[in-house]
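User: I'll paste a sequence; please echo it back and then give the predicted structure.

Assistant: Echoing your sequence first, then the prediction.
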Amino acid sequence: MTGGQQGAALTRSASIAIGLLAIALLTLAVAGESLQESLQWSRADLARGEWWRLLTGHLVHLDLAHAALNVAALALLYWLFGDVFRRRELVLIVIAGVVAIDAMLWWLVDIDQYRGLSGLLHAWAAAAVVRRLIARQDPLAWVIGVAGLAKILWENLAGAMPFMAPTMVVVTDVHLAGVLVGMLVGVLLQRSA
């Protein structure tokens, strides 16, 4: 297989993986409250040893609208940054994001339950922007980076973005944790490249 064919195969397999993840997120969103509650990040249930929630809490959402918003963001990030990282690098970003977000939820935030993928999406976006800025490959990365930082500042100073539904609880600390770990991993991956 030539380099171009390998790149096309990777893109095809990544597209399939992103599509399957999107289907899983939307399916879980309509699977019923009982299943969602059994998978959400829950302080009390984690304290009882239900460790799977450290991962599955990032896969369930408040409702179908919340899941659809995260799926749309996932598709946008794949379109913008699908070619920035090798598979193992993206897996490292996800692992670092899960660990950082779960640790922040447990030790730094007074919250009992959490559902959503947005923290991990913020980690991917931040890591990709950092890599593109360091490599000086993409002027659009400056625009996305500045807009992303403005969003994070807004959320941490004024609360959720104005376009969010009033019934949707946005854990802005998760977005901040995702951005911080994403930036750190982006720098570390660039230094090791």
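DSSP finds nine helices and two strands in the chain. Confidence is low (pLDDT under 50) at residues 1-9.
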